[in-house]
Design brief:
With 158 residues, this protein is α/β, with parallel strands linked by helices. It has one domain: Alpha/beta knot, CATH 3.40.1280. It has 5 helices and 7 strands. Strands 3-2-1-6-4-7-5 form a 7-stranded parallel beta sheet. Helix 1 links the parallel strand 1 and strand 2. Helix 1 runs parallel beside helix 5. The longest helix is centred in the C-terminal third of the chain and has 15 residues. It starts with 8 loop residues before the first strand and ends in a 5-residue tail after the last helix.
């Protein structure tokens, strides 16, 4: 971040689809956001689809690997974690984001665990979907929506 504020963090728990992770990596590169990949990935970091989605931006992305969310949290004991889920009561625009926050997204097919969400109701957020026929948004779309709201809240879109 140009104003020396701590960067935001996007955390992907066991992402499964290479183009989603590649698109999110590009988003992170464009916004100086750190990308954390947690747990078992549904692809190789060398996957051609992953690289294609991120194009030639990989060197601009700070990507970090973790075995578990617990390991990540232990390495950032003062970190504020926001858990995204369509099941959360609070909208992402109701969150009070601060520079350095961690925006956590679950795997494409299952999302985040019920236990994690139950344990963190005040830190769980959702993106409103107005059409009941649509179950969810694409992971990379969701990451962009939440990250840009966080950046807007802290004045990083000026």
């Amino acid at each position: 971040m140009k104003n020396n504020a701590p960067p935001f963090h996007i955390v992907l728990i066991e992402p499964e689809i290479p183009p989603n992770t590649g698109n999110i990596a590009r988003l992170c590169g464009a916004t100086d956001t750190i990308l954390h990949l947690v747990g078992k990935l549904g692809f190789s970091i060398d996957d051609k689809h992953l690289k294609r989605a991120g194009l030639d931006y990989w060197e601009a992305v700070d990507v970090r690997r973790w075995e578990s969310l617990q390991e990540l949290q232990e390495n950032f004991p003062d970190g504020r974690f926001w858990y995204t889920s369509k099941k959360a009561a609070k909208s992402h625009v109701q969150a009070n984001f601060q520079p350095g926050d961690f925006l956590v997204f679950g795997k494409e097919t299952l999302g985040l665990s019920e236990e994690l969400l139950r344990s963190n109701p005040e830190q769980s957020i959702r993106i409103p979907i107005h059409n009941p026929v649509v179950r969810s948004l694409n992971l990379s779309t969701s990451a962009g929506i939440v990250l840009y709201e966080a950046l807007r809240q802290v004045g990083h879109l000026d």
